[in-house]
Amino acid sequence: MGAYVNSMRALFSAAVTGGVFVLAVTTMTGCAAAEQQRRWQIEAVGGVTSPTERAAARQRAWEARQARRDREIRRARVIRVAPVITETKCQPTLAAVGDQYATEAGAQAEADKAWMQTARWQYGERFMSRENADDASYECGRSSVGSVVGQVFYRCRLVARPCRPEKSQTR
């Protein structure tokens, strides 16, 4: 029984010593972590520890940023240099081919639509009016090779010079 008591004493002694060691290491690690965190906080505010010094450091940093902003010259970007509306009344000649239609008059109306769409796309809405166009001419012809149940289709090509309306018409 004596050997058993001696081994129990050794075990108890090891447990107490180990527990104290674990407790000491945990405490030291916690203190070291808190100290490291405090150092990081001090470094983050510029090495200043007191609240009044930190506030003064923040104020100085803000004033430095404001001084940099005041030195910079802020300008708006220029997107377009030339005026949007040119002084020329008419644009270069434009040609468009319309869809096929059962009658020649319908094919001319389809060519008008296609020409107005093209003029609007290239020069803007101001130039798309067919009534203001100069030198307009139609070229019409059959678009179908044969006849489908006796029906013949036509297609027209409109060549005209798009012009903007007079100033009095835009009001």
Please describe what this structure looks like:
- The chain is built from 3 helices and 3 strands; from the N terminus they run ααβαββ.
- It has helices at residues 2-44, 51-71, 104-123, and strands at 94-97, 134-142, 154-161.
- The chain is elongated and about 125 Å long.
Order of helices and strands: HHEHEE
Low-confidence stretches: none
> What is the terminal-to-terminal distance?
120 Å
Largest sheet: 3 strands, antiparallel
Count of folded domains: 2
The tally of helices reads: 3
Shape assignment: elongated
DSSP helix fraction:
40-55%
Major sheet strand order? 1-3-2
Number of strands: 3
Strand content: 5-15%
Keywords:
alpha+beta; 171 residues; 2 domains; 3 strands
Question: How do you describe this structure in short?
Answer:
The chain has 171 residues and is of the alpha+beta class.
Task: Set out the fold topology.
Elements: H1 2-44, H2 51-71, E1 94-97, H3 104-123, E2 134-142, E3 154-161
Antiparallel strand pairs: 1-3, 2-3
